[in-house]
Write a structure and sequence with these properties.
Elements: H1 3-8, H2 14-28, H3 30-39, H4 42-69, H5 80-107, H6 116-138, H7 140-145, H8 151-184, H9 190-222
Helix pairs in contact: 2-4, 2-5, 2-6, 3-4, 3-6, 4-5, 5-9, 6-8, 6-9, 8-9
Length: 223
């Protein structure tokens, strides 16, 4: 079997879907990671960090293979650039997950008690958004079979609408978390507070990146 067949199998979207599965798995480890941080269990947090880094590396490997082998002159059911943009949007989710745990472990960042449950909710919303994005990407084969028309398009459009709602919910929740931190920040080390604001933003940004995956998928459908 030639390299292209090995990589793409029966569908040109197989490596793209495989990449998103790894990316979503990577982001999902943020839930046990934050649980460990909130428990002050840094050994467990480091184990989860190692899982996230390994998955981010795996996603990078898939990304590189896809970029190298994606046909340039052969027939493609969708524009090559659209596939690469979709891949880039997906990859940013894994990169951001890696950056979040890197800073938090490096600084052994504690979460102030008034923010603990709010941060659990933030992470849960962000990870839910990545799962919703994965559901959309998993429909690419069906979209291809349907010629990007008909009921399958309507189904994917509904998935994207639900993804948009999750992203908006995450944004709204971020404002509440930042407002709560603002009220108590004077009681904590200013440098720690600065990094905490950064983490709050980055967790919310994961949902934003997931929404971009949905937006890229919507562009594919619209062409």
């Amino acid at each position: 079997m030639n390299p292209l067949s090995n990589l793409f199998g029966k569908s040109p979207f197989v490596p793209l879907q495989e990449h998103m599965e790894v990316v979503q798995d990577c982001a999902s480890h943020l839930v046990p990671f934050f649980d460990a941080v909130l428990e002050g269990n840094w050994e467990k947090a480091k184990q989860e960090q190692a899982e996230i880094v390994a998955l981010e590396n795996k996603a990078d490997d898939i990304k590189k293979k896809l970029r190298l082998h994606l046909p340039k002159n052969l027939f493609m059911p969708v524009p090559r650039n659209d596939v690469l943009e979709l891949l880039r949007s997906q990859d940013q989710i894994a990169n951001l997950s890696r950056d979040i745990v890197g800073i938090m472990v490096g600084r052994e960042m504690a979460i102030p008690e008034p923010l603990e449950e709010m941060m659990r909710t933030s992470v849960a919303l962000a990870v839910a958004a990545t799962l919703q994005a994965l559901k959309g990407i998993e429909e690419l084969d069906e979209l291809l079979e349907s010629g990007f028309r008909g009921p399958e398009v309507d189904f994917v459009e509904r998935l994207i609408e639900q993804l948009d709602t999750l992203e908006h919910d995450t944004d709204d929740h971020k404002i509440k978390v930042r407002t709560t931190l603002f009220k108590i920040e004077k009681d904590y080390n200013p440098v720690d507070v600065m990094f905490l604001y950064q983490i709050i933003d980055w967790v919310s940004d994961i949902a934003d990146k997931a929404q971009r995956v949905g937006s890229r998928l919507q562009i594919l459908i619209a062409r």
